[in-house]
Amino acid sequence: MDNRTWWERRQKVVANGIASSFPVFINQAEGSWVTDVEGHRYLDFIGGIGVQSLGHNRVEVVQAIQEAAATLIHTSFHTVMYPRYVTVAERLVEITPGAMDKRVLFVNSGAEAIENAFKIARQFTGRPGIVSFTNGFHGRTFGALTATDKTDPYKIGFGPLLPDVYRLPSPHCYRCSLKSAPANCHQQYLERVDTALVDTIGVDRVAAFVIEPVQGEGGFIPMPKEFLNGLRRICDHYGILLIDDEIQAGLGRTGKLWAIEHAEVVPDLLVSAKALGGGLPLSAVVGRADIMDTIAKGSIGSTYGGNPVALAAAEVVLDLLVRDDVLNKAIEIGKVMREKAIVWQHKFPHIGDVRGLGAMVALEFVRPGSDVPDKEVCRAVIQAAFRQGLLLTKAGLEDNVIRLLPPLTITPDDLGDGLERLGLALEEVLSPQSVKA
To answer: Is 191 in the same domain as 207?
Structure first.
């Protein structure tokens, strides 16, 4: 059955609100490549939006899933426990920032983990307020969605959203709302945070800050380490918890196991998902023991959370991150992508900014001679890359950013091949003849 036939069937049964980037249906994947039902192969620089950090259908992950499914698929840890929930929790306690005692909650998705982090923070502090930051994305469930900055399309028609969730400005060097020099902008943003807490929100109302060290859906915007350190100091001063959203940036993507480690900041609660389950639904909240141990028994949990098959995949993921030297590979991949992107930036005035951290590299598209977002050009480049056999996805509040998310285990040849295809797409869309037409 071809792609068109599957599309026609999709239109009859799949909810209209579910968007899909490309008119193809994938039925096979391996490493950096996916193959559609018609046999067309594509280099995948999306990876399930950062999920397949170790590549598609990694043999060791598949084997672990098969072996786990043959012995135990599900009981729900809340009724009948199983050892793997404990052993993977032990691993996360060991590798997350901070030497203090920690506790772990497993759930199914990044949004679900964020929701639970909010509940934990509120119950522990006795305060209702959650503070998020501009350009942040934390999920599509109500609490996570309220904390997310972008309105269209995520929030359209879904209100009213949750009360006591506040959004404050965070640094964005390319689009600095304060028009400040990078050397001291973090201090001005921190002063705004402190002022808002004291004068507008009320310090005694805020349970937690939630922030991505590198904002994913916001367009791969790294938070300055000075800003993250400043938030840590503000939290300590006012008794506020710091929630570190590592859903997209964590597990090696930035060249550190956790993106917040670049700032040498220890959060109170860390949220992990996406790459953790090797492609299966799995997420975690890892928190200070003194916080997690005060939460009322039975007040947090999930029927499927910490599913034994997903946890088996996570065990292998955590092993391979070390065995495959993924952190150093992420640094090298990022270096290659950034160098190539900067060459393109000098060549094409539509590329206003190249940014990111480690193997999170983004290109922001603007109208030449300005910083006005150009989402049409961004969309055209993504579609041109698709015609070249390369899968890319957008980001940014204005949908004018292309983010590069190749597997952290991609071969040099495949990485070079993918960048060459992107270069051809940029030439097709941005060459003087194409722009004029």
So the answer is: yes
In the chain, the N- to C-terminal Cα span, in Å, equals 37
CB atoms near residue 237 (< 10 Å): 11
Instruction: Please name which of 269, 266, 267, 264 lies closest in space to residue 283, comparing C-alpha atoms.
Output: 269
404 token code pair: 């590069």
- Residue 47 CA to residue 279 CA, distance in Å, equals 9
To 10 degrees, what angle do helices 412-430 and 326-347 make? 20
Instruction: Answer yes or no: are the C-beta atoms of 171 and 186 closer than 8 Å.
Output: yes
For residues 347 and 263, membership in a common domain is answered with: no
Q: In terms of domains, do 152 and 287 share one?
A: yes
d(CA 432, CA 420): 19
| Whole-angstrom distance, CA of residue 405 vs CA of residue 426 | 18
Cα distances (Å, whole numbers) of residue 114 to 49, 83, 92, 149, 194: 17, 25, 17, 15, 24
Q: Give, to the nearest 10 degrees, the angle between helix 375-387 and helix 412-430.
A: 130
What is the domain extent for residue 164? 62-323
Phi, psi dihedrals of residue 296, rounded to the nearest 5°: -60, 130
Tens of pLDDT, residue by residue, the chain (437 residues): 999 999 999 999 999 999 999 999 999 999 999 999 999 999 999 999 999 999 999 999 999 999 999 999 999 999 999 999 999 999 999 999 999 999 999 999 999 999 999 999 999 999 999 999 999 999 999 999 999 999 999 999 999 999 999 999 999 988 887 776 666 778 899 999 999 999 999 999 999 999 999 999 999 999 999 999 999 999 999 999 999 999 999 999 999 999 999 999 999 999 999 999 999 999 999 999 999 999 999 999 999 999 999 999 999 999 999 999 999 999 999 999 999 999 999 999 999 999 999 999 999 999 999 999 999 999 999 999 999 999 999 999 999 999 999 999 999 999 999 999 999 999 999 987 666 54
The DSSP secondary-structure symbol of 85 reads H
Residues 337 and 419 in one domain: yes
Q: Note whether 198 and 131 are same-domain residues.
A: yes
The CATH number of whichever domain residue 186 belongs to comes to: 3.40.640.10
